[in-house]
Each structure stands twice: as C-alpha cells, then as structure tokens.
UniProtKB/TrEMBL annotation:
Assigned protein family: Belongs to the peptidase M24A family. Methionine aminopeptidase type 1 subfamily.
Organism placement in taxonomy: Bacteria, Bacillati, Actinomycetota, Actinomycetes, Mycobacteriales
SUPFAM superfamilies, per database record: Creatinase/aminopeptidase
PANTHER family xref list: METHIONINE AMINOPEPTIDASE (PTHR43330:SF27)
UniProt-recorded name of the protein: Methionine aminopeptidase
Catalysed reactions, as listed in the record: Release of N-terminal amino acids, preferentially methionine, from peptides and arylamides
EC number: 3.4.11.18
Subunit architecture: Monomer.
Domain Peptidase M24: 12-246
Length: 261
C-alpha cells in the first residue's frame, strides 16, 4: 500500500532530510586517508543522539540480511556497494567509499547515499563511475513527475548506466519511504518508459542508482550484510529522498552547497 503524504508531512520529511544530508556531508569530509571506518560510525552515532533522531539501521533485520544490523550507517569500500557493515578498516588514498544513512525524526524518515573518493589518488575510471551514478540520480529525479509512470524513472536511470557502458542489477534499487524506511513501491534501476504505476503528488521515494565497473552480480561477505561486486570491480552508489509534488519533484535530502565538489 502506498501512502500519499500531505504538503505538511513532506515538509516534516524535509526536516529529516536536511539532517541526513548534513550528516553525510560532514562524514564525507572526514573520510580521509588514515581514518578508520569505525570513527565515521561513532561520529554518525553521536550526531543521531545529539539530534534526538532514531536510526533506521540499528536493529534492522530484513530477510536478506543476517540481522540485527548493529550500526547506524552503511559504509561500503571499493568493491562493496550496499549494506556495508562498518568495521576496523583504515581508509587509504584512492579508496572509493559509499556512505548510506537513514534516520527518523518525529516519525518521518529520510534516506540518502553518497560515494566519495578518498584522498587525492583518484583513478579516472572510478571518478567516471561515481559521476555516472550522480547523473543517473539526476535523470531519475527529473522523470519523477505527476502523471508519469514508475517505469519512466527506472528507464531514465538505466539509460545513463547503459550509455556509459555499465551493467545494471535490478535486484536492489530504490523504494518508497515515509513513516518507515522501506515502503512500496520498489523502484528498479532499469525499466521501460510508460510502464508501471502512475506517479501521483504525495508519493515519496528514495531513488538510488548503483552499479560496478564490471559485473552486475553481487556476492555477500561472511558478515551476512556487505554486498560486493562478484568480480571485485569498484562500485558506486548515489541516493536522494524525493517527493512528487503538483509542480514536479522535490529533493528532500539536498546536498549542502558547501559540500558540492
């Protein structure tokens, strides 16, 4: 069932979204060579506690994971792309780090993810990969208009990937959200225009293009959570929470201007 949100409820989600975006910006800036992933996790925990927010990840135990997840942020490095469990790992120059963060404030959820390249030794192919997910996210958002179709969003995302030569895994993608982190509908990262449910004002979605430089297949770590590219190739992940309004899409997790690079 899809719950359409009122304008007031969307504004409340935007308050959560601002906190999510500011936290990701702060942690991204902190992600430098020599920093341990657990430092980022504990910084995120402190921010959640100080804000009086509730982590959507802590104690999360879906069917696809080996729950419960006992962290407040997903940190995925290099060939890891989704559900990366924070661990004792020191970041190195050139590492590709995806940060995925979702919380609830006053009962309303926002979810966002960014991928950054640590330090100064960026592989041009890694940079192109990260940028492709950002372009795909922009394309998906642009397609999220009233009276459009869910497949329009999926197709817009997938077309960016295909044009850049990347293969798309459709098993994990975007999703509805609002009072909880995962609600209907599932938003695939590939699809066909003109197909799927009609997009209506009040729908709130997390769009999250992700893919690897090589394989579109995933393997799971022994931790029961971290998903990696099957061939060990570098991955990237970008995500925003958006609302569909009468005047078009509204980004509820906008990147702070100071964090744009």
């Amino acid at each position: 069932m899809i719950e359409l949100k009122t304008a007031d409820e969307i504004d409340k989600m935007a308050v959560t979204g601002q906190f999510v975006a500011e936290t990701l910006a702060a942690l991204s800036a902190e992600a430098r060579p020599g920093v341990n992933l657990m430092q980022l996790e504990h910084h995120a925990r402190a921010r959640v506690a100080d804000r009086g927010a509730k982590s959507c990840y802590w104690d999360y135990a879906p069917s696809f994971g080996r729950g419960p997840f006992r962290n407040v942020i997903c940190l995925s490095v290099n060939d890891a792309v989704l559900h990366g469990m924070p661990r004792d790992y020191v970041l190195r120059d050139g590492d590709v780090l995806s940060l995925d963060f979702a919380v609830s404030i006053d009962g309303w959820v926002a979810d966002s993810a960014v991928t950054v390249i640590v330090g100064d030794a960026a592989d041009p192919a890694d940079r192109a990969l990260v940028e492709s997910t950002r372009r795909a996210l922009d394309a998906g958002i642009a397609a999220a208009v009233p009276a459009g179709r869910l497949g329009d969003i999926s197709a817009a995302i997938g077309e960016v990937a295909s044009a850049a030569g990347y293969r798309v895994n459709a098993e994990f993608g975007g999703h509805g959200l609002g009072r909880t982190m995962h609600e209907d509908p599932h938003v695939s990262n590939r699809g066909r225009r003109g197909r799927g449910m009609v997009l209506r004002p009040g729908m709130t979605l997390a769009l999250e293009p992700w893919w690897a430089r090589g394989s579109d297949r995933l393997v799971m770590d022994a931790d029961g959570w971290t998903l990696r590219s099957a061939d060990g190739s570098t991955t990237a992940h970008s995500e925003h929470t958006i609302a569909i309004t009468e005047s078009g899409p509204r980004i509820l997790t906008p990147t702070p201007a100071r964090a744009v690079n």
